[in-house]
Structure formats: structure tokens, C-alpha cells
Amino acid sequence: MKEVTIDNRKIGTIHEPFVIAEMSGNHNQSLDRALQIVEAAAKAGADALKIQTYTADTMTLEVEKGDFVISDQNSPWVNQSLYHLYQEAYTPWEWHQSIFDRSKELGMIAFSSPFDESAVDFLETLDVPCYKIASFECTDIPLIRKVASTKKPMIISTGMCTASEIEETVTAAKEEGCKEIILLKCTSTYPASPENSHIKTIPHMHDLFQCPIGLSDHTLGSGVAVASVALGASVIEKHFTLSRQDGGVDSQFSLEPDEFRLLVQETKKAWQAMGQVHYGPTKAEDQSKKYRRSIYLTKNVKKGETLTRNNIRVIRPGFGLAPKYYEMCLGRTVNQSIEKGTPLSWDFI
């Protein structure tokens, strides 16, 4: 499975990186803002726009204590209840059609992450071209089987997953008839640090699972994403917002439009730079070969004179004998008179 096709877009290492703008909850419960995000993402060069399909009730229970309250002091959502967080972040289902339609109008592929079976059934009515599985749902095998049964391509984030857990998920998807799978290396902290990204895993995942591999990136900036392309990532997913100053549940680790545009440009350059194993001059370098060093006459010499360090030198340009012959030429006599500035040739010796 060297490449996957989503809505006529081929994805794999021989193709330009497929860059996904994740809106998540950055619409701040405004459809107008959501559509502005779609437009800004398209203008920034995103290939796809992704949202999330759930409600607070399909995600968790309305409980405001104990396990249902975020206690991690490093979390941007510390002390919030899960229910309240998902109420704030969810994208109303009645917005989906407008968001998808506007994305398509602007040339982007539009799809979503379902978080339960009802979300899959709903997204099927909108004829989405593929599905994204979030990291926290990667081990939800019933959900994996439900999505895979649509026979549409699946993009699966693997944050926190062991190799065996990924294998279980991939096997379940294939058993239900999914033939096209993309796995994303992901670090499920928000934001994530470069040190915890471990993107050397990307080529290992490619060898292990024999499918396109990408990166769902929660780090700040674009450096990790660019590096991942050099390691074989063919998909980059980044959270996207109009402005971090406007707030929002995911704003702290989201890229603004100018940053996202740079991400698109730099990941494309990284992909172009990969090329293939190559030694020797490229066609573009042919004209530069003349600026190598070579052996030139530094003084006028007459027929029969001896070549010495006083009348030949290794200099630029490169039209004379190669520098490696310099010592061999010293002490030889010339068979004709030669002017200063003439490139030395075997014909003169």
C-alpha cells in the first residue's frame, strides 16, 4: 500500500505532502468564524479541512467531579470537566454541510473525525470522502470497525499507541474491508514538545505497516513537520486558527494563517529536496563546473622551458588540467611558447 487516493488526490512519498488544516473547536461556537477559518485555510494552501463530529453527550457523562475533571496541571484545560470542554469545543452537526460545501468550493477536501457510531452514520449522509480517527479513539475497535465498514480511506492518529495496539487497529480495519489506510505519528500532549515527538518512528512505521505514514503535529511552529517530511511523512495535520489571541480550546497549539502558509511552503520544499541518491553534478550544476580549480600558466614561457612553481599555479577557473596533476607537471618542459593565463594542457608537454 504505497499510496492512498482520497477524492482523486494521491497520497504517498512520491507525491507532495498532503497538508490538513484541523479546525477543531477554534470556531469558538460561531459559524461565521468557522467559514472564515475555511477560507483562510484554503488561502494558506491547505489541501484539506478537517473538523470533528461529536456532542458532549456522545463523548462523556455530565459529571463535574472525580475522573470527569481534568487534573493535569500541564493541560490547557486543567480543572475543566470533560463535559464542559466538549460542549465548548464541539462543532454543531447542522454546520457540517456548510463547512464541507465551502471547503469544496475553495478546492479543499473536507472530512471529519467521528467519535461514535452515530457520528459515522451522520457523516455518511454527507458523503465524506474519508475518515480520520483521533489518537484517543485509535484503540476503540468497535468504532474502527464501524468506520472501516464504509470501505472509505481511513487516516488514523496513533498517539500513545504501542506497536501491537496499532496492529490490532489496522487488522480490524482491514477485516471490515478498508483497503486504504494512512497512519499518523502523533504525540498526544497539547502542546507537544519536539523532544517528545520521536519522528524517527516514521520510517519504522512505514516498514512495519506498509502504508503511507504522516504526522499529526501538536508542537509549536513548523520545524517538526518539515523534518518529518524528510523522514518520509506524506501527510501533515496541524490545528489551524485565525488568531491565537482570539482564544479557543485549541488556540494555544494552533497555527495562524501566515504560519500555516509557511508550513505548506516549507514542507513542500523538504519533499522536493529529498530527491534520490545522487552523486556527481546535476544538470543545473553543469555551468558551475568551470569554477573549479585547475592548472594555469602564471607567466609567459618559451618553447623548451621547464614548468616550475613560479610559472604554473592551481587557480580558478577549471579549464586546465586537474589539480591532482600539479606535482606531475613540475619539472616537465613545454613543446611550444605559451602565454600567461593559458590553461595547461597535456598537448603543451
Written account of the structure:
- With 349 residues, this protein is an alpha/beta fold.
- It has two domains: 14-54 and 90-274, Aldolase class I (TIM Barrel), CATH 3.20.20.70; 283-348, Type Iii Antifreeze Protein Isoform Hplc 12 (Alpha-Beta Complex).
- 30% of the residues lie in helices and 15% in strands.
- The protein has eleven helices and twelve strands.
- It has helices spanning 31-44, 56-59, 82-89, 96-105, 117-125, 141-148, 163-175, 201-209, 223-230, 257-274, 326-329; strands at 4-6, 9-11, 18-22, 48-53, 109-114, 131-133, 154-157, 181-186, 213-217, 235-239, 294-297, 312-315.
- Strands 5-4-3-10-9-8-7-6 form an eight-stranded parallel sheet. Strands 1-2 form a two-stranded antiparallel sheet.
- Helix 1 packs parallel to helix 4 (96-105).
- It is elongated.
What labels describe this entry?
349 residues; alpha/beta; TIM Barrel; Type Iii Antifreeze Protein Isoform Hplc 12; 2 domains; two-stranded antiparallel ribbon; 11 helices; 12 strands; EC 2.5.1.97
What's this, in brief?
The protein has 349 residues and is α/β, with parallel strands linked by helices. It has helices at 31-44, 56-59, 82-89, 96-105, 117-125, 141-148, 163-175, 201-209, 223-230, 257-274, 326-329, and strands at residues 4-6, 9-11, 18-22, 48-53, 109-114, 131-133, 154-157, 181-186, 213-217, 235-239, 294-297, 312-315. The protein is built from 11 helices and 12 strands.
Outline the secondary-structure elements.
Blueprint: E1 4-6, E2 9-11, E3 18-22, H1 31-44, E4 48-53, H2 56-59, H3 82-89, H4 96-105, E5 109-114, H5 117-125, E6 131-133, H6 141-148, E7 154-157, H7 163-175, E8 181-186, H8 201-209, E9 213-217, H9 223-230, E10 235-239, H10 257-274, E11 294-297, E12 312-315, H11 326-329
Parallel strand pairs: 3-4, 3-10, 4-5, 6-7, 7-8, 8-9, 9-10
Antiparallel strand pairs: 1-2, 11-12
Protein name: Pseudaminic acid synthase
Enzyme class: transferase
Keywords: Transferase
